[in-house]
Structures are given as structure tokens and as C-alpha cells.
Design goal:
This protein is of the alpha+beta class. 24% of the residues lie in helices and 26% in strands. The chain is built from three helices and nine strands. It starts with a helix and ends in a 5-residue tail after the last strand.
């Protein structure tokens, strides 16, 4: 019996919600490199040593990492107008790409920049589709993952050139966002991009 394929089938059937906790330094830094993403949670679908991860786990981990990278790149561009806005193409696709390209370009023309950071408190996968064959191996085809992330925006602020805040004073402390992360080049891990996002205020990130 093929042990690797048996593992893929069993892990695919046992696929639950993958959670990860990450803190991303997003804004107000002179470092133009994308901050490293750290996580305190271990993958829930680890297989035996030497075995490959199931397609569902590969997609889930890649999508959560891309959401964290999206926040990091967006924050770096907001904080430093010298950075090329084209960096967004590495983390986002339309319509999100067009929206944030326009927003950042407008803010820069108004002399608005960000300070502080957006901290991703927790994130989880709620649904996904990662094409695979009958034996559980990834195959070419469009893949997508729905991710929910809760962020702490306590220290994040947008300021005008004179130092006054450009933020809504009632913006709150936490935000919960829902993302669609797509990969038209699946199973190429470099194809993931954030393509949709909705954001709402929340009282905490505990639920």
C-alpha cells in the first residue's frame, strides 16, 4: 500500500479549520523588507516524517501566510512613500489590487502616511478548494481559500504632514476581516494572491 497516498486521503477527510496566530510589524518602520511572519500554532495536519502535506494543508498554510504578507506590504507602502506601489502585485490581485493601488496613490498625493503597526492576532481558514487527483496529489487548476483574520489596530494611525490624524476617531481597537485568497497557478506556491476583502469592527479577537 502506498503510505503517502493513504496519508493524503486520510488527512483530506480529517481536514478541519486551520488556525494560526501571527504578529506582523506592518507600519511605521524604516526597514523596507517585508517583516518576518511568526506563528505560535503548529500545523494540525502534520503527517509522518518524510511525507508530504495534504493539498488542503498546503493551500491553507499558504493562504494564511499570504494574508499576513498582504498586511505587511500594505503597511510598508503606507509608511514609506518611496517604496514602489507595484509591490502590491506580489500579494494582491484585482479587485483588491486596484483598490489599494488607488488608495495608496491618493494618500501619498495628500501627504498622508501611516505610523505604528497592524498586529494579526489570529486567523483561520473557513473553506477552500485545492484541486487534487484521485490519489490525493495536487493537480493543476484554480485554487481558492477563504480566510478570516482578526487584527489589533491600537497603535496604527494615519497622519497628515502636519502630524494630525487622518483616521476616524471612532475606528475602534480591533477589526475582523474576511479574505478570498486565490491561486490561478496551483499547485505553484508562488501563485497565491488576496483578491477580496471585507472588514468590520469587533470588540475583541477572542471569538
Amino acid at each position: 500500500m502506498n503510505t503517502r497516498n493513504t496519508f493524503r486521503k486520510s488527512t483530506a477527510l480529517a481536514m478541519g479549520i486551520l488556525t494560526a496566530t501571527a504578529i506582523t510589524a506592518a507600519c511605521g518602520t524604516d526597514d523596507t523588507d517585508t517583516p518576518a511572519i511568526t506563528t505560535s500554532a503548529q500545523p494540525v495536519l502534520n503527517g509522518p516524517e518524510g511525507s508530504q502535506k495534504a493539498p488542503e494543508q498546503q493551500a491553507s498554510e499558504a493562504a494564511i501566510a499570504k494574508v499576513n504578507e498582504f498586511y505587511a506590504v500594505r503597511g510598508a507602502l503606507d509608511a514609506d512613500p518611496a517604496q514602489p506601489v507595484e509591490r502590491l502585485t506580489t500579494v494582491a490581485g484585482d479587485p483588491v489590487l486596484g483598490k489599494y493601488t488607488g488608495d495608496i496613490t491618493l494618500r501619498r498625493s495628500q501627504g498622508v502616511a501611516s505610523t505604528g503597526q497592524i498586529s494579526v492576532v489570529n486567523s483561520k481558514v473557513t473553506d477552500l478548494d485545492a484541486p487534487k487527483d484521485a490519489e490525493g496529489s495536487p493537480i493543476a487548476g484554480p485554487a481558492w481559500v477563504h480566510v478570516e483574520a482578526c487584527t489589533d489596530i491600537t497603535t496604527w494611525n494615519s497622519v497628515h504632514a502636519d502630524g494630525s490624524s487622518a483616521m476616524d476617531p471612532n475606528r475602534g481597537t480591533y477589526e475582523r476581516a474576511k479574505f478570498t485568497v486565490r491561486n490561478a497557478e496551483w499547485p505553484d506556491a508562488n501563485g497565491w494572491r488576496v483578491t477580496s476583502q471585507t472588514v468590520e469592527k469587533t470588540d475583541s479577537c477572542n471569538t
